[in-house]
């Protein structure tokens, strides 16, 4: 009897972990995103190697990433407000098509031998501007696909797409770079965007009803910040996320330096390190998806941060490929477990009519913290070296987040929807669960 019971428990666990995939619309969206995001990680892996090969500068590695993320700081609030007003599917079709242009231009420049560092920066900024609209729109689109019942599971599974592609993309990039070249990596990314465009046209959704505003577009866009004054949980989680990003993500910027100068690896070894980071991140996202609703998410946040900080020290101290790969996997697990948990807590703590704007602020934080962290990491590494920079990042991240966790310890488990100021013009909650169930097959 034990064997059937064990098999039933496994089936129940898998059913809970992947419950959103029973929905036809979400399955199509999931596959399209996986292809597109894998292409992005192929390009991102190749880009770090290209910049370091062209310049040999650790600081420029951070500068390029900062330039890529900087537009999110300026445009993500507008992107979130746009997502609250217009059809999210239409917006995503337009944005994904536009995002194919910069990597296509990069591929042409590389393959013709005309590539320069300023080309990389300019086209990275163009892509960043598109992502400032794409990220909040995509995050807020999930509830229209699956309804409220499966929202948290869909958010966690959506994180597995990002992290699964972090595992596949760098491995593919390492192979392409070694056998074909860096230009082909950019070309693959340009084509990959149209997988999601095709999937968006296949979705079966009710007609979009545009939101009418009785306030200026600027006041509408800034309504998310006003909402944060009424929801201390969401405000605190966003602040914690900013701290993790600024101090904790330096190790990703410095992986090319570690691979070449510390571990003495070639392109394939570099790809293994980046893929290991993705494997750990994917495991973290899947664990979040399988968590029962009764889990103490306050403890989950603390454990994820602790795991991440310890892993950063092992990344800096590893002396060869496989210990470094193990440490990179642990770092990916810890940081994505935190981001996925924080994202689910935030999205479950806001109403539908404000969700796009809150996700715009989430994107804005990434747009602010990524350039700041990248520039800081590149500058400090130029002075102290990559290993000590990562160690200092871990110390700063741990000290800052312990303080933030103490402040939030009594609020994370008891998040409730705050009373929303009527002047924010937040429409009623979207009733899409029935349509989502009818789309499921």
The value of Rg in angstroms is: 21 Å
| CATH H-tier superfamily | MFS general substrate transporter like domains
CATH class, anyone? Mainly Alpha
The oligomeric state of the chains shown is single chain
In terms of topology, how is this protein built?
Elements: H1 2-17, H2 24-55, H3 58-85, H4 88-99, H5 101-111, H6 117-146, H7 151-179, H8 182-202, H9 217-228, H10 232-248, H11 250-253, H12 255-262, H13 267-290, H14 297-317, H15 321-347, H16 352-384, H17 386-408, H18 433-439
Overview of this structure, please?
With 441 residues, this protein is mainly alpha-helical. It has one domain: MFS general substrate transporter like domains (Growth Hormone, Chain: A, Up-down Bundle). It contains 18 helices and no strands. Helix 5 runs antiparallel to helix 8. The longest helix has 33 residues. It is globular and about 50 Å long. The protein starts with a helix and ends with a helix. The C terminus is likely disordered.
Features:
mainly alpha; 441 residues; 80% helix; Growth Hormone, Chain: A; disordered C terminus
Describe the structure concisely.
With 441 residues, the chain is mostly helical. Helix content is 80%, strand content 0%. It contains 18 helices and no strands.
């Amino acid at each position: 009897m034990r064997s059937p019971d064990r098999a039933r428990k496994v089936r129940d666990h898998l059913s809970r972990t992947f419950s959103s995939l029973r929905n036809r619309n979400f399955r199509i969206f999931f596959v399209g995103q996986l292809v597109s995001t894998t292409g992005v990680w192929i390009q991102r892996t190749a880009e770090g190697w290209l910049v370091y090969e062209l310049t040999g500068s650790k600081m420029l590695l951070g500068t390029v990433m900062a330039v890529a993320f900087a537009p999110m700081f300026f445009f993500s609030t507008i992107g979130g407000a746009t997502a609250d007003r217009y059809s999210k599917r239409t917006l995503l079709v337009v944005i994904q098509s536009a995002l194919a242009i910069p990597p296509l231009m990069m591929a042409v420049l590389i393959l013709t031998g005309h590539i320069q560092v300023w080309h990389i920066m300019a086209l990275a900024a163009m892509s960043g501007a598109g992502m400032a609209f794409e990220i909040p729109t995509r995050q807020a689109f999930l509830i229209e696909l699956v309804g409220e019942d499966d929202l948290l599971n869909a958010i966690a599974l959506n994180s597995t797409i990002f992290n699964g592609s972090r595992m596949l993309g760098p491995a593919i990039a390492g192979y392409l770079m070694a056998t074909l070249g860096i230009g082909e990596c950019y070309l693959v990314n340009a084509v990959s965007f149209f997988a999601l465009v095709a999937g968006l046209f296949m979705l079966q959704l009710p007609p979009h009803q545009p939101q009418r505003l009785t306030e200026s577009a600027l006041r509408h866009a800034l309504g998310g910040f006003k909402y944060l004054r009424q929801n201390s949980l969401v405000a605190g989680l966003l602040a914690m996320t900013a701290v993790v990003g600024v101090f904790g993500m330096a190790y990703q910027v410095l992986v090319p330096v570690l691979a070449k100068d510390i571990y003495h690896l070639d392109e394939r070894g570099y790809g293994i390190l980046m893929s290991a980071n993705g494997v750990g991140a994917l495991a973290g996202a899947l664990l979040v998806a399988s968590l029962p609703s009764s889990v103490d998410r306050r403890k989950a946040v603390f454990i994820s941060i602790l795991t991440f900080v310890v892993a950063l020290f092992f990344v800096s101290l590893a002396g060869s490929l496989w210990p470094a790969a193990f440490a990179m996997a642990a770092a990916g697990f810890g940081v994505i477990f935190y981001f996925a948990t924080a994202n689910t807590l935030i999205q479950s703590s806001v109403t539908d009519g404000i969700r796009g704007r809150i996700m715009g602020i989430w994107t804005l934080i990434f747009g602010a913290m990524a350039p700041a962290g990248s520039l800081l990491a590149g500058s400090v590494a130029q002075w102290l070296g990559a290993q000590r920079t990562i160690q200092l990042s871990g110390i700063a991240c741990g000290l800052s987040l312990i303080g933030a966790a103490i402040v939030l310890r009594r609020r994370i488990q008891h998040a409730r929807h705050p009373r929303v100021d009527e002047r924010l013009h937040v429409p009623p909650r979207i009733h899409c669960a029935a349509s989502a169930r009818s789309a499921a097959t």
